[in-house]
Design goal:
It is a single chain. 52% of the residues lie in helices and 7% in strands. With 444 residues, it is of the alpha+beta class. It contains 21 helices and eight strands. Helix 14 packs across helix 16. Among the domains are: 138 residues, no CATH class; 92 residues, no CATH class; 77 residues, Orthogonal Bundle (Arc Repressor Mutant, subunit A), CATH 1.10.10. About 7% of the residues have low confidence.
Length: 444
């Protein structure tokens, strides 16, 4: 056997993931707003790259800069018209502490109790521990807590659900004996045991339902709405609109930045060899960035247009008509890899006549038909049908998972009971037993 080394020459092609390719891949999965932020960072490092911010539709061109005095007047006018942000829960309570506590020591102790307050408005620690940390004597802890519970809205600084609801009932002056007994037996309320509740509250069913109606009017977490923040909806990246008998898709130009290359700066850059090399590299990067953004936009439009073409029924009829579609289906139609479609649809929003949706929402698996020749339906459409069936059911006779499976299967989709249970839990729909118990409590 000849063991001598042999040298051969051959050719092969391979894809090297360099820095520019990594940037191009990242830009594919950026939304318009993320792309704007990314391009701004690149423009800050490249003197030949200019990023024009998106121009909102219908916005007038910027006027000439006003004088300093006019600018200050305009700023003051805007500040006067701006709506004040609502105070947080803790700022709201600190303002009330100033009126309740005259003694600085009590005021400082109230701050310690405030630190133990949960966003829900409940006291999140044991009363004895908080009182010891605040320097309040153990025998006076209950009295000090009672002073704290005088704040508004009623129910704050409660230690449990029953106390929270009792404070609100006292504030409304509706803490009757049957209602107090109801608060002492909240586990029976959770079980919807009407007969047992009538016995412990010593009232008939009609009076009990009046007490239950009052209970539903109270807020179990009175502090939660202070910390709730309303986040504005993100503007869509694509816009689908009807065009005659079909649909047209376009990028949302009001959020899409434009990239320009300022090559006019290069001839004046002159200088030593290092300077010329730097200018050449930066100018090449700027031109590549412009081509990468154009490629990103073309790919996004191609993938979005294919999704719109396949989901025309959804655009016209809504979620019940969404069709099965996979990444491979779109990739083969567009002529790109599945990973490219996955990246493009990650984080992208599309505005349609049915509302704004993530592009990922249109990809759903197919459920086989119950009989040969029956058209497959998407899992999303079946989940929408289950939601409609539960919404329209008789609350006193809620549909079981078996009944829902039979009704959906009658429409041509072979659906098992365990699949209905899985979809129902994903939709946040309680079981038929829980829905029946809720109906008994509400009397519907």
């Amino acid at each position: 056997m000849d063991m001598r080394p042999i040298q051969t020459i051959g050719q092969r092609q391979s894809l090297v993931v360099n820095t520019q390719l990594q940037q191009a891949i990242c830009m594919l999965q950026m939304s318009n707003l993320e792309l704007q932020s990314y391009l701004d960072e690149q423009a800050a490092e490249n003197p030949f790259l200019e990023v024009a911010p998106p121009q909102p539709e219908g916005q007038a061109p910027p006027a000439q800069a006003p004088s300093r005095g006019a600018a200050e007047d305009a700023f003051d006018y805007i500040q006067m018209r701006a709506e004040a942000r609502p105070a947080s829960l803790y700022a709201h309570l600190r303002g009330q502490f100033d009126l309740i506590f005259d003694d600085p020591r009590d005021r400082a102790a109230a701050e310690i109790f405030l630190e133990a307050l949960e966003p829900s408005g409940w006291l999140g620690e044991d009363l004895a521990q908080v009182a010891a940390r605040a320097g309040v004597p153990a025998e006076g802890a209950e009295d000090f807590l009672a002073r704290l519970q005088q704040v508004e809205p009623a129910g704050l600084f409660a230690r449990d659900l029953a106390e929270c609801l009792r404070l609100q009932a006292e504030d409304r002056r509706c803490l009757t004996e049957p209602f107090a007994r109801l608060l002492e037996n909240l586990p029976l309320v959770a079980k919807a045991d009407i007969a047992a509740l009538c016995r412990v509250c010593r009232c008939d069913e009609a009076e009990l339902r009046r007490q239950l109606a009052l209970l539903r009017c109270l807020d179990p977490k009175p502090g939660a709405h202070f910390d709730a923040e309303e986040h504005g909806a993100r503007p869509p990246d694509l816009i689908a609109r009807r065009d005659g008998d079909g649909w047209t898709l376009d990028l949302n130009r009001s959020t899409l930045p434009a990239v320009h290359v300022d090559a006019g700066q290069a001839p004046r850059a002159g200088g030593c060899a290092e300077t010329r090399a730097y200018v050449g590299a930066r100018l090449s990067d700027a031109r590549w960035m412009r081509r990468a953004v154009e490629h990103r936009n073309r790919t996004t439009l191609a993938v979005g247009a294919e999704i719109v073409r396949r989901q025309g029924a959804f655009l016209e009829q809504g979620p019940s008509a969404i069709r099965p579609m996979t990444l491979r289906d779109v990739a083969e139609a567009v002529g790109v890899h599945e990973s490219t479609v996955s990246r493009v649809t990650t984080g992208m929003m599309i505005d349609t006549p049915q509302g704004a949706f993530p592009l990922k929402a249109f990809f759903t698996t197919a459920l086989s038909g119950a009989a040969a020749g029956t058209e497959d339906r998407s899992a999303a459409a079946v989940r929408h049908q289950i939601r409609d069936l539960v919404r329209d059911e008789d609350p006193r006779k809620p549909l079981s998972d078996d009944a829902i499976a039979r009704m959906v299967s009658a429409d041509g989709v072979a659906l098992a009971r365990r699949t209905v249970a899985k979809y129902r839990e994903a939709l946040g729909i309680p079981s038929s037993f829980q829905r029946r118990r809720a109906a008994r409590l509400t009397g519907s």
